[in-house]
Design brief:
single chain; alpha+beta; 45% helix; 6 strands; two-stranded antiparallel ribbon; 153 residues; globular
Length: 153
Amino acid sequence: MTERNNHPVAPPASDEGTRRSMMSNRRTDTKPEIAFRSMLHRSGLRFRKDRYVKLETRGVKVDVVFPTQRVAVFIDGCFWHRCPEHGTMPTRNYEYWLAKFRRNMDRDAANNENLRRIGWRVLRVWEHEVKDDELAQYAVDRVKTAVRLVARS
């Protein structure tokens, strides 16, 4: 494995099917994101999707944004963001994946901190929460509460 910009570069995909699968992963408008945005909309909330929020040194793309209230909502995939309940670790190319997941988690923590530092409330919703009706409703309620709390202050 070689390095580029201090990040390990993945070895070639183990097979053509794996390569195609990895290339087909979406960065935005994933099924969980679309489902959660639909739930938020049905609950009466209006928002912006996939918006860039400028930070002190750079910016971050946020899945669901309430710009007036300064509330940022991320819908995190259980695999990519290391859900403590559902995150799995590939057995092939273990060292690459370990480094990749650490970078993802470090980036998430830095984005949370940087957004909070400039006055934003940050909420993270796991992919598995969106797929479960009860957990999804709880997540929608968390967002509604955050938006309303900020609107009142």
